[in-house]
Amino acid sequence: MLLGIETLLLILVLILAVVSLWIRDLMSSVVVFGAYSFLMCLIWTGMGAVDVAFTEAAVGAGVSTVFFVAVLFNTTRRIQFNPLDLSAKIFSAILCIGTGYLLMLGLSDLPSWGDPQALVNTNVSKYYIESAYKQTKVPNLVTAVLADYRAFDTMFETCVVFIAVLGIFMLLKKDGREPLKETSAKANDNLIIRVASRFMVPFIQLFGLYVVAHGHYSPGGGFQGGVILGASLILVAMAFNIEFVKQLLSIKRMLLLAVIGVIIFAGWGLVPVFLGQSFLDYSAWAALLPGTGEIMARSHSMLAVEIGVAITVMCGMYGIYMSLVSDGRFDKGL
Amino acid sequence: MILKFNYVIMIILMMLGLWAMIAKKNIIKKLIGMAIFQTGIILFYISMGAKSGSNIPILDYYDRYKPIDAAQYANPLTQILMLTAIVVGVATLGLGLTLARKIYDDYKTFNEDEILQEIKNEHD
Fold first, then answer.
1. In the 8-state DSSP scheme, what is residue A166?
2. Do B50 and A107 touch (CB under 8 A)?
3. What is residue B70's predicted lDDT score, i.e. its pLDDT?
4. Is A117 a member of any domain?
5. Is A48's CB within 8 Å of B5's CB?
6. Is A48 left (phi over 0), alpha (psi -120 to 50) or beta?
7. How far apart are the first and last CA of chain A?
8. Cβ separation of A10 and B6 shorter than 8 Å?
9. Are residues A182 and A277 in the same domain?
10. A238-251, pLDDT tens digit by residue?
11. How many domains does chain A have?
12. Rg from Cα positions in chain B
């Protein structure tokens, strides 16, 4: 599958990666890295991975660039000029080229690009493709595998997001030792940004809810929808100020919601244990949900756990942004 | 070699990220290198799951009740592994940025050499 457009995109991506590491200004470097992520998302669309492309567009190109900017805005974008320390650079270059050479030797064992009969594409993946719709009535196979067949994986990934937020809170928390700086609590005085974001935010949130709820039939699901919902809150925090967005969703309530999201997922999986089935075996929910057979119970359960994932991811993105931009004080933003 | 162009790009991207993590002096550049390394791994998984001439892994309305040929749809398994990896990646990136911010608060620089110098001065 040597498609011209994808080969071209791969070369472009490589150039952008080099440029992003080369530029001697951190802000430009971060922006080039955002462009790199966006090209990556085009490549994944070309390879048929639409859900991954959606996630990358929301997370890699969107939110992670915002995180970088939030840190650089309050610190420095300058890179100090170093006297040329070539020995360390050449040593690490030799190390990396050596590792790369060893990896290249393994190339002959890998399946060729786009081979449907390759080992990855046959055994369990073939089973998922052939039987996922029969067993769950979910046409989007990625959602079916994500929320049902491999729900254990997804549950602990959600926990990792929650733990990362907790870690960031612990690291940046200021327990009143340092005096509060002069707060710039007045609203952002850029009228165009305020009015435009006031119009945009409801539509962004509606789209986020659609992505969460329609993940069964189209690309999307809890992770993507949660990131979009979190991004809408970040937009409010940027266009107005942190005091305003804290009235909408306070920090305590945000942490509580993140816990609730994990509990929804784990609790929904725990109920089948009390009904005599194994953990996360959704078909047991048929006894509790009225009017559903075992198949539809699995389909509805997926929506429930996706909602849990979306709540945790939304609060996670919001919390990480708020901590980074205000250095743990939650008093002023960009 | 030319048929495995995607893996070649993957290896180059990963080594670029590794080199940046070792050789770059600026902490933020190191974090960008880490993210590039991560996208290299994601590229590896996704391009292994790609099938030439296949569709996206969402069943068409008319195909749902027919027997399904697995070769017609891209591999959903590698995709979900990477989907969750991206979201976890941004959470760990946030943690890394937090550590960078803490270091900046203490030493007023992102430069590795100057941080080491400051630590040495504190000990003396």
1. H
2. no
3. 81
4. no
5. no
6. left
7. 46
8. yes
9. yes
10. 888 888 888 888 88
11. 2
12. 21
